[in-house]
Amino acid sequence: MRISLEREKELRKIVKGKSVSILCNISSVNSKYSHVVDVIKGLGGKVVSIMGPQHGFVMDKQDNMKESAHSEHEGYGVPIYSLYGESREPKEHMLKGTDLVVFDLQDVGARYYTFIYTMANTMRLCAELGIEFLVLDRPNPINGSDVEGGIVHPGFESFVGMFPISNRHGMTVAELALLFNEEFEINCKLKIIKMEGWSRKKYWDKTGLEWIIPSPNMPYFETALVYPGQCLLEATNISEGRGTTRPFEIFGAPFISHNEFLRYPAIKSLKGCFLRPLYFEPTFNKFKGEVCRGFQIHVTDRSLFKPLKTSLAIIYALYDLCDEFRFAPPPYEYEFNKQPIDILLGSSQPRELLNNGADFKTFYASCCNGEKQFLSKRKAYLIYK
To answer: φ and ψ at 300, to 5 degrees?
Structure first.
């Protein structure tokens, strides 16, 4: 297959002779490891600025909520503007003299991954200024068929959930751009170059592409498999494995009992995965330097594995079993009032049900409120079979 960046004939027609600003990071490369900035310059585009998302253009910011400063590209002397620093929205001066903005970032298929909202914010400014916005598409690494989870409900919008889409959305960035532009009325001059050879049921390891780390804590394709659920642990005092070599696949805390946890009904009922007990000592983030008892999630059958349900079962069990379990207080991703778990789940109802002793089936159903609505809405914006 070919990602959009490799469809150079089509790309040349759009960028040649234009002043271009590129929204990308250091991992925005093709199969020959050529960076999008070099490719566009080689095709006759004049690169006037670069914009970088969360973790920075060079991905030097390891942890969440670590802002990046503006800088300059060492090779080309053009400004690199941070869109995860003093602002999450581009400013008009950043696009001064720009004819075209090109977006080329690898998404991971989960609502919380902020690259898609940096895209949406930039599309909005392009709409205001009358600038064309081109999306270079890349695969959804966890396939474009499976959808899981409810939508973000009114009042719970944030930078990890700007629009009412499911936790696992099953779309590519180009499809999301179409959805944002039309359904949510951004109305920019949107252009898309499609991929060749990608189909909706393909996972990353069936594409023939090499996994290039899109952000510091997404080191493997397998990380993306569990991320639509495991990101929720950021909103708790349970380590999501940051500070280990397998973030999100590994989770735990010093106060967890392996045996008690594995015997818990909601955990025993999980399908398509094996939770392997282990010990780990994070090098940064939660429980830095402390020995944690926890587990690694091994996905054994992708057709049965539900990442959101798995992680909600983990949270439900730990909430019931561990007196030390806590939901993290704000701030979280620039939201200073609402509970982090509420903005990640798009509603306060799941947390309230948990606090009131709801059974797991009821709790999980509340976390999927709006899934059918989203499934119906997304159909019009799918561009691959």
So the answer is: -100, -25
CATH number at residue 342: 3.90.1150.140
Residue 64 has pLDDT above 70, yes or no: no
Average the pLDDT over 82-92 and give the result. Answer: 93
Answer whether 55's CB lies under 8 Å from 61's CB.
Answer: yes
Q: Which residues are 360's β-sheet partners?
A: none
Structural domain of 139:
4-216+375-381
Task: Read off the tokens for 130.
Answer: 């009358």
pTM here is 0.96
Same domain for 251 and 348?
yes
Residue 69 has pLDDT above 90, yes or no: no
Whether residue 186 sits in one domain with residue 90: yes
The pLDDT value recorded for residue 63 is: 67
Statement to judge: residues 201 and 325 lie in one domain: no
> Identity (one letter) of the amino acid at 90?
P
Residues 83 and 172 in one domain: yes
Q: Say whether both 56 and 194 belong to one domain.
A: yes
* Type of residue found at 242: R
Same domain, 233 and 156: no
Q: Quick check: 27 and 213 in contact, CB under 8 A?
A: yes
Order of all β-strands in the sheet with 19-24: 71-72, 79-82, 46-52, 19-24, 100-104, 132-136, 189-193
Can you give the CATH number for the domain in which 185 is found?
Answer: 3.40.50.12170
In the sheet with 250-253, reading across from the earlier edge strand, the strands are: 250-253, 292-299, 273-280
- In DSSP notation, 12-78 reads HHHHTT-EEEEEE-TT-B-TT--BHHHHHHHTT-EEEEEEE-TT-TT----STT-----EE-TTT--
CA distance 370 to 35: 39
